[in-house]
Write a structure and sequence with these properties.
The complex is a heterodimer. Chain A is mainly α. Chain A has helices at residues 4-24, 28-53, 59-89. The chains are: A mainly alpha, B mainly alpha.
Chain lengths: 102, 642
């Protein structure tokens, strides 16, 4: 059986890749994808801990399914926001969207 | 005791006049305000006279003693069971007498003002203020307890303030009104502390109860008040002296007199009403009200005596040197009030001994008439000469014969020439002081001689001395100005014949006033001498006044400058109080109190300036903060706080 640390290492790597992508990319779609990476790293964590610590229970798996569902909804909302921003600014560069300042 | 419900209306008719004219006057009654005021005051005066008749002749006297009647009483403010402030109307000989004096003088002034203030822009406002004053003064005299009196006392003060500053376009009037208000307020501070002390030891605010408690030698209240002491003086003496301080402020006794001469900035009828006949005698009235306590407490009565006596002489000397006719009258008022005060000071508590008390009230009564007459006469003169200065007058007897005659009557009355009113009351005061001690009598005698001199100096300067050669043509005023002068002149001539001791005496028992013919010779001769000197110096233009002034030298200059009292006050306030108290307090307020608040506001501002750059609108920057924050919390909780 693969030790849990391997899996945790994988999820941590995935999380930091997502985080790096989120703060460096200027394209909103790419940022959204980086966000999905972070969410999925968390999903892996949940599944792994569920499997290794409480094998007889399903709580971690439920959470994972929840997060997938929420992420899907969130992606829908985010993409609609991005489309609106594109209509206003004719670009999807995140640097152009500074309205939150006001 | 029934039958005195109408006293309520005596009080409230002027209040109605105030509210009606004050709220609606300028809009609806600007022309008719005077008539409305006069009408309401006429009713008030009629009621007061009826009230006096009923009290003195019908049912006030029971078993040879005048009753103290609570015509009206209700509890106004209850602090706890047994401790409350009442509102009431107390009728006893002096309050009934004062009701008549205040309402009738006020009526005369109301009528006189019809002509005097005609065409004034704030005519209705003027009448509403007069109504307020009359209401407050009537309320003051019928007060049944100390606190009620204090409230009306302040109301009187504020209406005096409003009326002195009536011509508020003139800076001098504004300054005078502020001065009057601040000086009397300062005195009232003492009054308030005195009230609290008397109420604390007397166990009540009610006049009758306090007097009952504190004048019985065996009562626990009396013992407590005389055992407790501060700086070696008993609490009772402190209380009474502080109450007298309030009275001295209102009555312009030395050294709190400085506001009265300046208060002459107000319209002249107002000076007649407030600063001659009624408000300024409130202090005398206050002492008379609490007289049983003063009489038992020798130390405080001594203060009343000395302050009154000194003021009488002091003011009379200054009055001889002033050239503004209203100021001469103001100092003469101070001097006469000094007479009333020291008459109380020499009085005893019973029978013949209490002559001073009767004399003081009698003088208050007669003085109200002749002094308001003098002021109204002076007002008529000023109205047509347009100046207050003696040098602008002279020879007016040909132009204003009626004013001349009534002024002469008033001068004779105040100089104490028989058979005019002032003679009788002044004789009683002199007799009372003669019975007390010789030096009081001597000073009183000198003062009354001086009174005759300065009054006739005034009279000759206005009406004789030279031919009138001013620009305006003085003439008699309208009927509304003549009638009050005539009525007051008749009163000034005749009220002396009222057997005053029958009505007002220290123990409320009517007594005969004995008249000593031999005793009166000396004061009358002195009065006549005073008049003759004035005649010699001022009837025709000559250089005798100047040479006289030179003969007195620096004393004359000091008196002309009012003995530098104003300068002394300015020095004390500016160089001592402002410098050592006012400025440091202002500094503390500005730097410490305001400063700390400003610093807190500044800190918030600076912080927000420093961190507002963080809100850049850049999502990725926000994400960095977010991750940074989480990392910080993880490190904090996982590694540091464990």
């Amino acid at each position: 059986m693969i030790p849990v640390s391997h899996i945790l290492f994988l999820s941590a790597t995935l999380f930091f890749i997502g985080m790096y992508g989120f703060v460096t990319r200027k394209n909103l779609i790419t940022m959204l994808m980086a966000l999905e990476l972070m969410l999925n790293s968390v999903n892996i964590n949940f599944v792994a801990f569920n499997k290794y610590l409480y094998p007889g229970k399903l709580d971690g798996i439920f959470f994972t399914i929840f997060i997938i569902a929420v992420a899907a909804a969130e992606a829908a909302v985010a993409i609609s926001i991005i489309i609106n921003l594109y209509r206003m600014h004719k670009t999807i560069d995140v640097g152009a969207a500074t309205e939150l300042k006001h | 005791m029934g039958g005195y419900e109408h006293t309520f209306w005596i009080l409230f008719l002027p209040a109605i006049s105030f509210v009606l004219l004050g709220l609606l006057g300028r809009k609806y009654f600007n022309k008719s305000a005077g008539l409305i005021g006069v009408f309401l005051l006429l009713l008030t005066t009629a009621l007061s006279l009826y009230n006096a008749y009923q009290y003195f002749f019908v049912n006030g006297l029971v078993d040879g003693v005048y009753l103290k009647i609570d015509a009206f009483k209700f509890t106004w403010l209850t602090f706890s069971p047994g401790v409350s402030i009442d509102m009431g109307i107390l009728l006893d000989p002096i309050s009934v007498m004062m009701l008549v004096v205040v309402s009738s003088v006020s009526l005369m002034v109301h009528i006189f003002s019809l002509g005097y203030m005609k065409g004034e822009e704030r005519f209705a406002t003027y009448y509403s203020f007069l109504g307020l004053f009359t209401f407050a003064m009537l309320g003051l005299v019928v007060s049944s307890n100390l606190f009620q009196m204090y409230m009306f006392w302040e109301l009187v003060g504020i209406s005096s303030y409003l009326l002195i500053g009536f011509y508020f376009q003139r800076p001098s009037a504004v300054a005078a009104s502020k001065k009057a208000f601040i000086v009397t307020r300062f005195a009232d501070l003492g009054f308030l502390i005195g009230i609290l002390m008397l109420a604390f030891y007397g166990g009540s605010l009610d006049f009758n109860t306090i007097i009952q408690h504190l004048s019985a030698h065996q009562s626990s209240e009396y013992l407590a008040a005389t055992t407790a002491s501060f700086l070696g003086v008993t609490a009772l003496t402190w209380g009474l002296t502080l109450v007298f301080m309030g009275g001295a402020g209102k009555s312009a006794m030395f050294p709190l007199h400085v506001w009265l001469p300046d208060a002459m900035e107000g319209p002249t009828p107002v000076s007649a009403l407030i600063h001659a006949a009624t408000m300024v005698v409130a202090g005398v009235y206050l002492v008379a009200r609490l007289f049983p306590l003063y009489a038992l407490n020798g130390a405080s009565l001594e203060i009343v005596l000395n302050v009154g006596l000194f003021t009488a002489l002091f003011a009379a000397i200054i009055a001889c040197t002033q050239t503004d006719i209203k100021r001469v009258l103001a100092y003469s008022t101070m001097s006469q009030i000094g007479f009333m005060m020291f008459a109380l000071g020499v009085s005893g508590t019973q029978g013949e001994q209490g002559l001073g008390y009767t004399a003081s009230m009698f003088h208050l009564f007669t003085h109200a008439f002749f002094k308001s007459l003098l002021f109204l006469g002076a007002g008529a003169v000023i109205h047509f000469v347009h100046s207050n200065e003696m040098k602008d007058m002279g020879g007016l007897r040909k132009w204003m014969p009626l004013t001349h005659v009534v002024f002469l009557v008033a001068c004779l009355a105040i100089a104490g020439i028989p058979p005019f009113a002032g003679f009788f009351s002044k004789e009683e005061i002199l007799l009372a002081s003669y019975n007390k001690s010789l030096w009081v009598y001597t000073i009183a005698l000198i003062t009354s001689g001086l009174t005759a001199f300065y009054m006739f100096r005034l009279y000759f300067s206005i009406f004789w001395r030279k031919e009138y050669n001013g620009h305006s043509h003085p003439q008699e005023g309208s009927m509304s100005m003549k009638i009050p002068l005539i009525i007051l002149a008749i009163c000034s001539a005749l009220v002396g014949f009222i057997p005053f001791g029958k009505f007002v005496s220290v123990d409320s028992q009517p007594q005969e006033t004995h008249f000593h013919l031999m005793f009166s010779i000396l004061p009358v001769i002195l009065g006549v001498v005073g008049i003759l000197i004035a005649l010699l110096m001022y009837k025709k233009e000559n250089d005798r006044p100047q040479s006289m002034a030179k003969a007195f030298g620096s004393f004359y200059r000091a008196a002309k400058n009012k003995f530098y009292m104003d300068e002394l006050y300015l020095f004390v306030t500016k160089n001592i109080i402002f410098k050592w108290v006012g400025r440091p307090s202002a500094w503390f307020d500005r730097k410490v109190v305001d400063g700390s608040m400003n610093e807190i506001a500044n800190l918030t501002l600076e912080t927000s300036k420093a961190i507002k750059g963080m809100q850049s609108g850049k999502i990725q920057r926000y994400a960095m903060y977010f991750f940074g924050g989480i990392a910080f919390l993880i490190i904090l909780f996982v590694y540091i706080l464990k």
